[in-house]
Each structure stands twice: as structure tokens, then as C-alpha cells.
Amino acid sequence: MKVFLKSCATLVSRKMVFPLFLFLLPLALNAASGLWNSPLAGEPIPYIVTEPESPQKDYKGKSMTVVYLENLGFGKIGQYSNADNVSWLLAQGYRVIELDYANHSSMAVSLNINRDIIAINNALESGSFCGLNDCSNYRSYILFEGYRIARDVAYFKDDPTVYNYPDGYTEGDSLYMDIIYPANPREPVPVVLSFSYSNSYATYDKNTGELTDANKHMRLFLPYTLGAFDDSFLEGAPARGIAWAMADHPKYCPWGSGKPVGGANDTYKSYQTNPDAAQKVKSAVRTLRAKSQELGLSGKIGIYGFSRGSDAGAMAVGDRSVPEFENAGLHIGLSDDVQAAALGPGVFDFTQIYNTTDDGDRNLETRCPWAWGPLKDNYELWEKMGAAYLVQSGLSAPVLFFYNTTDSHYYLDQIQKFKEKLEEWAIPPVSLVDYGSGHSVPKDSASLKKLYDFFDQYLTPPSLDEDTTQSSLSAVESKQLPLMLSYNPSREELSVRFSLMQAAQVEIQLFDMAGMLVFSTEKKAREAGLCTELINLNKLGLQQGIYHVRLRAGGLNTVGKFVFCKS
Q1: Pairing between β-strand 174-182 and β-strand 147-157 as defined by DSSP bridges
Q2: Contact (Cβ atoms closer than 8 angstroms) between residue 157 and residue 145
Q3: What are the strands, taking DSSP E only, across 513-544?
Q4: Of 197, 214, 218, whose CA–CA distance to 152 is shortest?
Q5: What's the CATH code of the domain at 216?
Q6: C-beta contacts of 370-377 below 8 A and 24+ residues apart
Q7: Quick check: pTM over 0.85?
Q8: 20 to 30 Å CA-CA from 238: which of 262, 303, 375, 559?
Q9: pLDDT of 13 over the 60 cut
Q10: Containing domain of residue 178, as a range?
């Protein structure tokens, strides 16, 4: 019953009068259809716009919008029908624009689909998509078929005394994230978390003396984030079997503002401070992990960060335990470790900012001493402000760095120093260099493939082959060495389960949080398949706390974490 027109700009409104549509879309007022020029297809493809009965608006009165991509060329992970998912989205108050790739499904695969993601975001950001000029720049999302969104998931309550802006901001707001996940998945999926490089913050109307909501929920502000940088990595991740989330940036005030108590105005112009930033990042990771069972996530988490979002995301990479950083926020006690990170240019070690003066980071060179005092007199404090400080052993997460050598010199210096820190602990970093120019993100197919392949290696997403009958174990085995820890928390013994594709020498090691080896065993697995090693923890004389497991076999290396609780 869908009628497709020849022009995206030409819309035909129609009442939902047919019983079938009334059943599937009970909360729809009307729908319109047309054609959209798809860069992927090289020709127009059909779309339908359906308005909700109770539309949700952003603070500017623009419509919250979901662009829902259907009939793609890879297997669906979410098992609800497209009609069910569209109906659910309408019930949440989203306008839904369905793009139908049925006639081009063989082309609608990763990495081709990223071209259309970029085009859609740019159209939404410019203010006109499929003839609509009132789509929100703050609350518009691209979803693959089978996926839904958990919007505004609180992950930390802000402390208004940290950045002291505006003056009327005295009761902290919650920071939030959006999670895009497959609904009712056929098997659990990993998730990649990014911190927005725009900022949500409270505003203060000096005329009325009241706080306003004008700048809240800016994590998807298209002119500054996905639209501005043509950034399609996150939104394209579901085409590789991965969920994704974007969180408010930890610095809850305008990027060019913020001052310490009794300090100078705009002290925090170009950076955020610890323990506040690290507490928020770790709380965000724990919150995402806490949502895993509810949303069908596997519990494996990757980090993707660019620019100021890279500064924030890097805080999750290291393995050093800092109680002041970890014992704040939500879900304290859950693991805040991540399995991998892809980091763009950022600032990872503030003690390095004077290596070359006036190389693009003058704001840091001038203002960091305002917050922390001179570097020479306060070295340890400065050191604790950067992500490099949290890398303490070889148990830190593996990192892919992406950057252009034409970017500001201080970014290149920061990346090089962080690489050297990881290499000290035998964590060889991966690099993606000169995919473009200046301060930009990767968007060409070859670069995106390298990013996705990197996360595939450590997050083990399920296969998206159209043949969905293969077991999840086979899908995992085809990608990397999986590690499953049972009895976690553990009181007496730990079960270490893993699967081998072939016979191999196997080494299992346990480390405490200081990186000290407390147990090691090595043996030969004589055939492929599932293997289990039971470790009697009571015989090791362990103290109660968090421990890491390192598994090496067949040239592969993976790390897990468990909690030991004394009986």
C-alpha cells in the first residue's frame, strides 16, 4: 500500500485508514512517501515518513527523528519485525523515516552503507532531509533494521562546584547517554562507547535569574559531531554486529568556560580535570555494562574517541586502580574495564605539554598552572590528570590511534608519548595515519575497515552472514580467542573456559591489581574445541579484591577480570 513519488521534496500525506496499518502503527497520525537520492545506490530509493500521535520535540521545538534503514544486505540481529520496531519508535514519540534498500540490498552492506550515513547526517544538519526542515539537530538518529534506542540513560550526577559555571548552577544535573542496541537479539552483541565532543551544560538566564535547559542533551549536536566531521563510524557499527552508545562529555559547562573555586575565569577553557572526568568515564562504562543483560549486550565494551572525546575515552584504557576515581557515580563494584579503544588526537599526559611551546596548545600551557600550580612543583598532581597515568601494566586495553600528520603538532606529540607508555608494557599500539588532513576523522572505506576489524578482534561481535543458523560459538571461533570466566565473583574456584580452532600451547596467568603474577599454568591442548581450566583460588592465599586473567594460546592473547571474595 506504499505509494512512491519521483521527488524527495514532493510529499503526499495520507490518513492511516487501512486496518492493517492501524494495527501495526496505532500511534501514527499520517504518513508520506517519496524518493531519496542514495549515494550508495547511485539512484533514488523509496522512503516513508510516519508522524507519531504524540510527537517528542527538542528544546527548539524540532521533531525528534529516527531514520530507519530496511532490507539491508546482511543478517538482522534484532529479531523483532521492522513493523514492530517502527511501531515501538512511534510510541516513543519519534518521527520515523523508513529508507527501503530492497532493490539494492546486495550493495547495502558495510562499508558501503557508511556513505549514505554521512549523506543523511549532512542533510539533517543542513536542515532539509526528504523535504522535512524541522528534524532535530540534537535528537535525530540513524538506526539499522532490528535496532532500537535507549535514550537519556543517566550515568552520573554532576558536581556543580567543579567547573563553577554558570553562577546559578548549584544543584548538579545528571549526565546521560544514548544506547543504540538490537532489540531481542539472536545473540548478545558488544558495544562501542564514545563521549561527545560537543558539550551538554546548564545555562543561566541573567534576565530572569532562572536556569534553563537550552544546552542540555547536546551529545548528538550534528553541526559539532556526526554531521560536522562526516563521522559515520559509530552509526555504521551495527552493520558489523556492534551496538553503540554516545555519552555527554564529562566537562559539564561550555567548552571555553569553567573555573575552580576561587580561581580565574575560563581556567578550564581547553580541558577537563580529575578526579571529576575519570569518575564520570568509569561510571559511564559501569552503567553501560549494567545495562547489558536488559539490552542484550555481551558485556564487552570498546571505546571510540575523537578530539575532546578522545581525552575522555582514554581514561577508560588503563588498568591502574585509583579508589578516588572508581568509588563515585553509579553501579560501584561492577567492572569498569574496557576491551579495546580507538583514539583520535587528544591530550593524554599533561606533563608533556611544554615539550614544544606554542605548538597549538597555548591554552593548556597558560591555563593548566591556574588550576594545578606550576608543573615543576606539582608534577604528581599534573600526572594524575591524564590517561597515561592509568596505564600501569600489560593488562591495559589495546589501542588503535588514528591521526593525520598535518594536525597540530602537540596532538602528534601526545599520541607518540602515549604509544611509548603502552609499548613499555608490551601493548603494541596500532596506527591509522594520514587518512585525510588536519583535525578530522576517518571516513573512507579502507580506514573504516581497519577500525572495524580492530574492534572485531577484541569484541567478537556475532556473524552477520545471512545464514543465521550457525552457532554463536562458531561465530566467535571464526574471529578470535574467546574467554569466559565463571563463578564471578569467585569464592573457591574459577572456571576459565575458552575455545580453540586448533591444537595449541595454552598459558593462563592471574595478576593482582598491582600487576604482580599470583598464578601461572601452561599445558598443551591436543585438539580444537572447548577447553576448561578450574583454578582453586583458596590454595593461592589471595586477598579479597579484583584480579586479571591473561590467556595465551595459538598466538592469540586476551584478558579478563574477576572478583575474589573470601568465604
Answers
A1: antiparallel
A2: no
A3: 517-525, 529-536
A4: 218
A5: 3.40.50.1820
A6: 370/260, 370/263, 370/264, 370/267, 371/260, 371/263, 371/267, 371/268, 371/273, 375/351
A7: no
A8: 559
A9: no
A10: 146-459
